[in-house]
Amino acid sequence: MIAALASDIPLQIILTGALVGAAASLLGTFLVLRGSSMLADAISHSIVFGIVIVWMLTGLTSGPLQVLGAAAAGLLTVILTEGLARTRLVKADAAIGLVFPALFAAGVLLINVYARDVHLDVHAVLLGEIAFVWLDTVTVGGHEIARALVTIGALAVINAAFVTLFYKELKIATFDPALATALGFAPGLLFYGLLALTSATAVASFDAVGAILFIAFVIVPPAAAILVTDRLWLILVIGVAIGAASSVLGYHLAVAWDVSIGGAMAMMTGVFFAAAFLFAPRYGLLAREIARRGERLDTDCRSLVAHLFNHEKGPAAEEENTTRALREHLRWDEARTERVLLRSLDIGFIAHEGKRLRLTPKGRAEAEAIFEPWRRGGRA
Amino acid sequence: MNPLALLGDYTIQTVAIGAALLGAVGGVLGTFAVLRRQSLLGDTLSHAALPGICLGYLWAGARQLESLLAGAFLTGALAAVTVLVIVGRSRLKTDAALGVVLSVFFAVGVVLLTRIQQTGGAGQAGLSSFLFGQAAAMLRGDVVVMGSLAGAALLLVTAFWKEFKLVTFDRDFAAAAGLPVAALDLALTVMIALAIVVGLQLVGVVLMTAMIVAPAVAARQWTHRLEATVLLAAGFGIVAGVSGAVTSAAAAGLATGPVIVLAISAIVLVSLLLAPGRGIVWTALAARAERRRLRGRQVLLTLYRLAKEHHDPAYPAEKGTLDAYHGTETAGVLGRLEAEGLVRPVSHPPEPTPHWKLTSKGRERAEDLASSGEERR
Q1: What is the reported pTM?
Q2: How far apart are CA B75 and CA A125, in angstroms?
Q3: Going by C-beta distance under 8 Å and a sequence separation of 6 or more, which residues neighbour residue B33?
Q4: What ipTM score was computed for the predicted complex, to two decimals?
Q5: A221: nearest CA in chain B?
Q6: Were both Cys, which of A33, B27, B93, B217 would link to B237 (CB 3.0–4.6 Å)?
Q7: Contact B114 A260 (CB under 8 A)
Q8: Which stretches in chain B have pLDDT values below 50?
Q9: Does the domain made of B3-274 have the CATH classification 2.60.120.10?
């Protein structure tokens, strides 16, 4: 299997992207739910600073030390941001907007000055180049495998283990931090662990997709999944699936259009998001619109029943309880009147004799429930 | 090289004027953004400018600044509207909406950018300088474009000053007063996109957010008034912009955006530390002075009570007793009280240890303190 992988460069590229997507969206789910999406944005910018510092100290551009350095830079961002917000001189969102540009700018300038001709160039930092991951390989079981694939694979396993082991704790800490504290789960510590792993994943993904496109994989798949379902485990599963699917589709798109593979992969997450935003079963735009119309129709049916009930015994019943009266007195247009009548006939609220509309016993019960709700309890 | 000599250089002049425009417009509109808690919107809008720049290039077929900036403005505004739609029509929070729009728009920009690079054309190198800004690539004509955009933005702010101010500080009242709150909101948001567009060539899409947030945060530390904040933010923006751009242009090869961002970050740091009444150093000093005053009062009252207990107004209290009583070394406090003429060191033979007693002035002060304490009780 490894042999097949080693000889298949496109497969290595796709697999790297898919693992970035999976590893990132596992953690991103909790960040998005917690309302810390933009912290992920800040981290992915400022790890550049950590990467440059580790490179200057050790000359390494990848490996475990780089992962640790990036994790430290990510935590530094979070600590500085929270420290700034705690002085109350700066609001929390402005604090994020102050810290990461400064760290990122410092990182870029250091590359500018010291590393211009080395592997670390500014574009690679920002955009990554997943197409070249196979150039830098390590030997696994006698076969050459892309280093980025091995690193991100390890991180994906670690992230999955973290989420599985602390699933309950993360769940409570995300939805009810106060309860988590009361139960002794140390939600703050858990959150720092989450952010440290996010930074480490960012640096592992860095060769493949770069600092900024990584944000797409952290935020977009979970955000799309949240629109699809309420169940946390399902959000995680759907998020991972979207992340992985985006990589596969993005790769083929990029090959077809001859564009950046990382960019196309990140763009595909946006396509999935748009699809979820529009077509998600309960929270999608379309589903909400349909539900809204359904509610309006139901209300209209109840209005019709009430109208008929009010006039049923009155002297003007002949005139009021006709289709024409609905148009004139309830000010419904023809289409609306027709929809409501059909629906009410369907439900069995009304029956008609020629032009005259009558309440069925079911319709009368509905009207009585509207006008005299206290009776309903007695009857039931 | 002498900085003044640098300013005589034609290229440097161009860059400095552009940077000043950027600083001014970023500071002014950034103040509104920060006060309205929209700091991170600037981040999203500036990243979202990248696809617009590429589209502008594809539209004009060349690196023509007007069309690039028009494209950037359009996608920026589109991004702002998309954020509003996502927040309004789904259950995602603002931060998630910002993150989604930022990363997806940027990804589209990267795809377009690489598409343009593949199809070739000399304009390609010029486009990627929009990532981090490239002061050296600026022309005098570019300054005219930037100047008219900045001028338009500043003119709008001046014209609707009262309305913008009201909608920033008291939306409910603004709505009750009959102002079109939604339209003003949209105007302020779209104008942030305008400010970003002005800075793109110098700072780039990735770091432009700092020029929105940082000058405003720095200025806010020094004053409470909106007028002063806006002017000061513009001033800080201009200083950071000009110094950063000139440094970058002089030291060829340094990306301009990061240098400008570090300059404005330094201004923020100084403001946070030193601003009178608010700054970290200032409040720390004030807290220390307060602590000392409190400790002085406590020691004075202890001496007074000891004297009272012993029915001896000139009762000499041993320093060791005072230390033990307050659980800390009291030499410093006693020294300061002595300097104020409230206590006096005395010897109390046969004991060799230092003793202190109240002066008459000290007794009066202690009596005041004690009685005011009793009233409060």
Answers
A1: 0.84
A2: 24
A3: B39, B41, B42, B188, B192, B212, B213, B216
A4: 0.85
A5: B100
A6: B27
A7: yes
A8: 1, 122, 375, 377
A9: no
